[in-house]
Amino acid sequence: MAKKVINYRQVLNRLGVVLLAFSLAGNIFLLKHQSTVSSTHLVTEVLDGDTFVTEDKSIIRFDSLDAPELGRCGSLQAKQELEKLILGKRVKIEAVVRDPTGRVIATVRQGSSWVDEKLIASGWVKYASTTIEGHGKLKSIDDQNEILKIGIHSNLCTQYENAYNPKCNIKGNIVDEWTNRGEKIYHLPGCAQYKSTRIEKYRGEEWFCSEKEAVKAGYTKSQACP
Known about the structure:
By secondary structure, the protein is α+β, with helices and mostly antiparallel strands. The protein folds into 2 domains: 30-153, CATH 2.40.50.90; 159-221, no CATH class. It has 5 helices and 14 strands. It has a 5-stranded mixed β-barrel. A 4-stranded mixed beta sheet has the order 13-10-11-14. Strands 4-8 form a two-stranded antiparallel sheet. It is elongated. Residues 37-155 form the TNase-like domain. The chain crosses the membrane at residues 12-31. Keywords: Membrane, Transmembrane, Transmembrane helix. This is TNase-like domain-containing protein.
């Protein structure tokens, strides 16, 4: 059987057509969102501390911040804060990108107020982006909240000791570094990193009364433990 000869020029031409199609699609997306940037939208529902719905059923999530998931420490306060700022009001949505689920990721203004900044200042949401103008100011506010122990950074949601139930003193830590993000590790009293490990309940970290409980919840013992 004759060996098939690959026409590389033809392959490259086809690849160029595909790339052009993606480029055009991206330009169309940006053109569609130019009107989003220049107009205002009525907020009809607040889903949680960093996501809301407009009158056209669009779901908007803040680019610059991260609120506790519903049910976690501080989630109710974060949602109430956002409702106070924008629910039933018209806001200007400055779109950054649309995520895979269809939500618009954006920075938001209400009148002369930058809503991202107001939310960060409340202490019930955390700074979580470097993609928008003014991010240095937002990070500075969040850093100050941590120093002053405001909102989610207070002893209500960030703890080194379990004052509410001292007998349950096993620390369930969720790794936040990029290399092992999401890994669940538990620390026992006496482990090398126990004292320096804090429990951020707003992120889903928790206290356990026994190793059995920690393992059942998906945590593994820290390698720093004897």
